[in-house]
Amino acid sequence: MLAPLLVGRWSRIGLALTAGVLAALVHPPFGFLPGLIAYPLLMLLAERSGTVRGAFWVGWLAGFGYFLVGCWWVAEAFLVNPAQAWMAPFAASLLPAGIGLFWGAATALYRRFAPQGLARVLVFAALFALFEWLRGHVLTGFPWNPAGAGWRAGSAASQFASVAGVYGLGLMTVAAAAAFAPLLAPGPRKGRIGVAIAGAVVFASLIVGGTIRLAGAEVQETATLVRIVQPDVDQESKWTPEAYRSIVDRYVNLTARPGEALPDLVVWPEGALPASFGDVFAPGSPDGVAIAGALQPGQTLLAGFARGERGEDGQARYYNSLIALHDEGGEGLRVGAIYDKHRLVPFGEFLPLGGLMSALGVRSLVHMPADFSAGPTPAPIDLPNGSRVQPLICYESLYPGFTPAGRGRPEWIVNVSNDAWFGATSGPLQHLNLASYRAIETGLPVVRATPTGVSAMIDPWGRVIEGQRLNSGESGVIDARLPAATSPTVYGGFGDIPFALLLLIGFLPLAVARLGARRGQT
Questions:
Q1: Catalytic residue at 394?
Q2: Peptide bond into 454 cis (omega under 30)
Q3: What is the pTM of this model?
Q4: Cis preceding-peptide flag for 29 (omega within 30 of 0)
Q5: Is residue 488 part of a domain?
Q6: Is 238 labeled as catalytic in the residue annotation?
Q7: CATH code for the domain in which residue 373 is found
Q8: Is there a catalytic annotation at residue 190?
Q9: What is the pLDDT of residues 453-512, one digit of tens each?
Q10: What is the pLDDT of residues 224-259, one digit of tens each?
Q11: Which domain holds residue 115?
Q12: Which of 47, 132, 270, 349 is catalytic?
C-alpha cells in the first residue's frame, strides 16, 4: 500500500517527481510502458493533498520532472553559440517549470472539485487531458510529448489517434492507467477491482482495435519518386565561412547522385543552406547555378530557406520558408510555390517581449537581421508536377489539425526540420515520433527531411517504412515511392470533436454529482 508514503511532505515531493520522471520515460527513445503507473500515482497524490494549493504543487512537481526529462535537449541549441551558452541551464529548467504549471492546474482543480466514488477516475483523466490540450494552444502552445504520444507512432495503440487525435488517445490512456489508482488506496475493495478491470479492457481495446486497423494496412505506392536529402551538416560549424562551400557541395552532390530512376521530387531540410534564398539565387550566383545544374528537366526541388521581402509599408520582413523550385528545361529554376512558416518557435525564431529581451542581451537563435514573421494559416500548396502537399516546417509538425480534410485535402505531408540544433539527443527521436502522429491522424504519408537525422518516409499509419530512414549522424539520400493516402480518417473529418465528446463523458460524473448536491440543498 502506498497510503503511508502519501502522508509525509517529503515523501509526496519525492513521489511527485518520480511520477513525472516515470511518465516521461514512456516516450521515445525509452519506451518504458510501466511508467504509465505515474498517472494513478499522481491522482492519489492529488487526493491526499490537504489543500488545493498542496495539490497544485504536487502536479507542478510531477510536470517539472516530466518536462525536465522530456525537454532537456533544448539546452543543446544554446550551446551551439558560445556567446549564448549561459542561457542553456535556464532553458533546461525554466521551460519545464513554466509548462509544468498546466499539470499543477489540472491536479489543483481535481482536488478542488473533490469527486467521490470510483467515477473520479474519469474526472481526473478528463481534467488532465483538458489541460494537455490547453498546453498545446495557450500562447501559441507547446504540444511536446502529450500523454497520448507515449505510444510509439505506428504501434497498434497509436491508431486510436485516427479517431480522436493524439489528445483523445491521451485521455483514454490516462483514464485506463488511473483506473488502477483505487487499488492502491485504502478502504473497502468493493467495486475497485471492477474499475481496474475496466481500465485493463480500455488498454486491450486500444491494442486490439489498432491491430485490426493495421491488419489491413498495406502500403500502396504511387508513381511519384521522392528523394530525401540528408547531408549530415552539424549546427556548430554551419555558419563558418570556410564550411559554406562544403555545405553547398554536399547538397548538390547528393541531389545529383545517380539512382535507379530519376526522382520526381527532391526534398531538402529546413534552413538547408546558411544563406538567404535571395543571396543563393541572385543573378549570376554560382550557388544558384550549381543547384540548377544538379536538377534535371521535370524535377522539382522542395527546399527550406530563409527569405526576406519588403511589405507594403516598406519594412523588411523575414520568413522561414519552404520553396518549390521547378526545372522546366530552360535556364535556371522557376519558383512554383512558397510556404511561409506560421507557428514560430519562441526564442528560436522570435523574441517574446523583444525590447526587454534585447536589452538583456538575449537574441533569437536565427542568423537574421530581425525576428522571423509568421506566415498565414497553414494550407496546402500545389506543386508543378500536379500533386498537392501540406508543408509543416519543424515545430509545426507538433500541432494536430494543421492539415485540412474534405475537398482541400492534400495527397501527402512534407515535414522539413533542422534538428541539427539538438545534436544526438532524445529530441530528434521524439520529434520523429510526434511528426508521425500527423500521418495517423490524417491518413496521409509524411516525408520528413532533416540535415542530421532523423529523416524518413512515413506511411499513412505512422510507421517508418523499412529501409527508408536515415538516423542521426548519417549522410545520404532516401529514394522512395510516395505512399498513397488512406481514405479520410474520423479525426481528419471531425477534428477535435471526438476528443470533446470524450471530455464530456469524463466530466459527466462531476456534473451529475453537482446537480444532485443542488437538489439536496433544495
A1: yes
A2: yes
A3: 0.94
A4: yes
A5: no
A6: no
A7: 3.60.110.10
A8: no
A9: 899 999 999 999 999 999 999 999 999 999 999 999 999 999 999 999 999 999 999 888
A10: 999 999 999 988 777 777 889 999 999 999 999 999
A11: 3-216+495-521
A12: 270
